[in-house]
């Protein structure tokens, strides 16, 4: 049992709420919660010694396991034990006070003063294990604190290691906490949703633990009961009443309010008081970012807002690291800002020059604003953006891909490679904030548009580049964006080599959200039956019919059956209905491929097949992109066809010429270019 000096508590800084604090603080400084009081002994205010209690096993477990950990900086085991014991005592006090005061800033300051960063995994473990035996309020406080401390105070490997120890000790935790498996499963799920623990943690830990251990039960419950559930992020975040505590959205809203009030009143003292009352110094970069954007939007307020930032830095209210981070986030999103504020680049450059000359920004630590392609014409980009919004929103309501294709074909500015990339980026960004239906529809549309791979790759590059910022609002951005990226490869919109190119363009790919996105996408594509799984990730076949998704094999079988029934019965209307009810317009190239193969093999009633292709094309059921893709795929397997049909190449050339005459194949299509060629590394090559 740890021996704690109760006098050391007085050395910690308790923080009470300032009146009018913009954040909901628990105003309990100097008063411990009832659950905490019940756990204290009347003698000295310390947790009582109980043989076999979790305090005892935690100590023995940690000391026993920590000897095997390398890189702790201690060669002397005696010094190691002394340092760890000291850290444990102080960590326990910090956590107890946090549960009493709800003062995040105090925790941040105390941990930094305490140092010994190599032991912070223990803080993670201790925080969660103490919260598990308390009320929902403390559980939510613990989850919020971990998300707050992640990366800024506690390094990601230490968070990972802390959860590793928690899961490993699940059997011991269950002795004192009857519902330990369920509670710890929620903590693990919450950590994954908050993006402080990678999803791969589940599988890796399962492989390391004995099959009959409680730790395995925890991981399985986290995966199947929480993370696999529909709307799992909202469910997990609200499990302990998260909406009633601090959220990033709450803080952002309050930052906006304080900046607006400052612009109206010009009262710096009041603005500084509000910033202090936020008690989120780790989030001050958001103040910098929003102040700069507001300054761009309101020319008359520029001087006021820049003076506010300058003085906030001079008095030490906002540190230079947060200032740099705020400017960096603006630079990352300057292309999007330029759509609403045409002069954003120039204004931002002037802000940087002024801040650097006044000494409150280190400009050399920022990347160049001119990185990447500049918008061609800001005015036309603004017009295109408004139209793109209208087109995408209408598409999410109607599901009519042909109408979107038509709108973009008649839009002159859509011929710009950069604006096409922006359209795809906007489409996916909007879909990520919506349900599975819209995500599936976005994938279908990207596939149906027929944009050059370069434009789609540039769109994903912009999405990945801004993923760190998106993660502040969307905790599952890594999983969502990785799935969109993998789906683009499966749909053959991108080639696997495009992932490598994106990875090579990502700075420090292993350490930022963008790098994680690409690595996760590659992992998804390398999995067994990846094509089918990715096609079904958001319901696959459910767009037209709202039915569960089908596997690629099932869809192929359905296509084969509908062709045979159509050829034998001749009911063209029924055949078109069946094609539509497949609900997979991005897979219509398979209808074209099987139809052309049937014609080449000279099966009966070839004219009926030609008629079906023409009607499907004329009605917009099969787009020219899908038609072209179908013919290309026939050309790619022409060598195999030649084994059964010796003159397959000649017949295919005749089919191409007829398709051009019928008008559903572009004149530029050349059959010889596709003969025998197969796209390198296609994720669907096994399905063709």
From TrEMBL:
Pfam families according to UniProt: MA3 (PF02847)
Gene Ontology CC annotations of this record: cytosol
Taxonomy, superkingdom: Eukaryota
Domain MI span(s) in chain numbering: 86-207, 250-371, 383-504, 554-675
Gene3D superfamilies from the UniProt entry: 1.25.40.180
Region (Disordered): 1-57
Cross-referenced PROSITE patterns: MI
Keywords assigned by UniProt, alphabetized: Cytoplasm, Nucleus, Repeat, Translation regulation
Family annotation (SUPFAM superfamilies): ARM repeat
GO biological process: regulation of translation; response to absence of light; response to carbon starvation
GO molecular function: ribosome binding
Subcellular localization(s) per the UniProt record: Cytoplasm, Cytosol
Family per record: Belongs to the PDCD4 family.
Protein name (record): MI domain-containing protein
């Amino acid at each position: 049992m740890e021996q704690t000096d109760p006098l050391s508590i007085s050395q910690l800084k308790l923080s009470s709420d300032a009146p009018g604090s913009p954040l909901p603080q628990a105003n309990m400084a100097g008063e411990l919660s009832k659950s905490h009081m019940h756990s204290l002994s009347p003698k000295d205010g310390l947790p009582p010694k109980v043989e076999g209690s979790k305090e005892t096993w935690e100590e023995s477990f940690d000391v026993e396991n920590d000897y095997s950990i390398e890189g702790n900086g201690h060669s002397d085991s005696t010094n190691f034990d002394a340092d760890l014991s000291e850290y444990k005592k102080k960590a326990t006090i910090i956590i107890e006070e946090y549960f009493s005061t709800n003062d995040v800033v105090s925790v941040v300051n105390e941990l930094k003063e305490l140092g010994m960063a190599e032991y912070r995994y223990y803080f993670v473990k201790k925080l969660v294990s103490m919260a598990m035996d308390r009320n929902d309020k403390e559980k939510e406080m613990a989850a919020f604190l971990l998300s707050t401390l992640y990366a800024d105070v506690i390094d990601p490997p230490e968070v990972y290691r802390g959860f590793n120890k928690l899961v490993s000790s699940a059997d011991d935790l269950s002795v004192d906490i009857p519902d330990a498996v369920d509670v710890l499963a929620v903590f693990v799920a919450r950590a994954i949703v908050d993006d402080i623990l990678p999803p791969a943690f589940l599988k890796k830990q399962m492989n390391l633990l004995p099959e009959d251990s409680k730790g395995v039960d925890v991981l399985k419950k986290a995966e199947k009961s929480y993370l696999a559930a529909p709307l799992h992020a909202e469910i997990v975040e609200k499990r302990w009443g998260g909406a009633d505590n601090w959220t990033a959205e709450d803080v952002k809203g309050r930052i906006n309010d304080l900046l607006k009030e400052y612009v109206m009143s010009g009262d710096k003292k009041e603005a500084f008081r509000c910033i202090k009352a936020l008690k989120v110094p780790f989030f001050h970069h958001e103040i910098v970012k929003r102040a700069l954007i507001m300054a761009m939007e309101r020319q008359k307020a520029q001087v006021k807002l820049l003076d506010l930032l300058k003085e906030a830095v001079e008095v030490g209210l906002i540190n230079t690291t947060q200032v740099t981070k705020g400017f960096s986030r603006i630079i990352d999103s300057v292309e999007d800002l330029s759509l609403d504020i045409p002069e954003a680049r120039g204004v931002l450059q002037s802000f940087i020059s002024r801040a650097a000359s006044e000494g409150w920004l280190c400009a050399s630590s920022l990347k160049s604003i001119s990185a990447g392609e500049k918008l061609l014409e800001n005015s036309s980009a603004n017009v295109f953006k408004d139209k793109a919004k209208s087109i995408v929103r209408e598409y999410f309501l109607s599901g009519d891909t042909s109408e979107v294709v038509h709108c973009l074909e008649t839009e002159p500015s859509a011929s710009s490679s950069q604006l096409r990339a922006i359209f795809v980026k906007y489409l996916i960004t909007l879909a990520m904030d919506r349900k599975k239906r819209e995500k599936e529809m976005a994938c279908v549309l990207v596939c149906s548009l027929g944009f050059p791979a370069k434009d789609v790759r540039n769109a994903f590059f912009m999405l990945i580049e801004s993923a760190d910022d998106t993660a502040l609002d969307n905790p599952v951005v890594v999983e969502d964006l990785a799935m969109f990226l993998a789906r683009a490869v499966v749909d053959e919109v991108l080639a696997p080599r495009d992932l490598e190119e994106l990875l090579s363009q990502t700075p420090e790919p292993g350490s930022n959200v963008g790098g994680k996105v690409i690595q996760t996408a590659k992992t998804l594509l390398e999995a067994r039956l990846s094509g089918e799984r990715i096609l079904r990730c958001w319901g696959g076949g459910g767009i037209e019919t709202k039915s569960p998704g089908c596997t690629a094999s099932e869809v192929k079988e359905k296509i084969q059956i509908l062709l045979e029934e159509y050829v034998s019965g001749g009911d063209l209307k029924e055949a078109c209905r069946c094609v539509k009810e497949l609900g997979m317009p991005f897979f219509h190239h398979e209808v074209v491929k099987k139809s052309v193969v049937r014609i080449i093999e000279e099966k009966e009633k070839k004219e009926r097949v030609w008629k079906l292709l023409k009607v499907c094309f004329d009605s917009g059921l099969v787009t020219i992109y899908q038609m072209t893709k179908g013919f290309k795929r026939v050309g790619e397997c022409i060598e195999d066809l030649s084994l059964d049909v010796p003159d397959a190449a000649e017949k295919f050339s005749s089919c191409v010429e007829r398709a051009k005459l019928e008008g559903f194949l572009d004149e530029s299509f050349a059959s010889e270019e596709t003969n025998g060629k197969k796209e390198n590394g296609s994720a669907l090559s096994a399905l063709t």
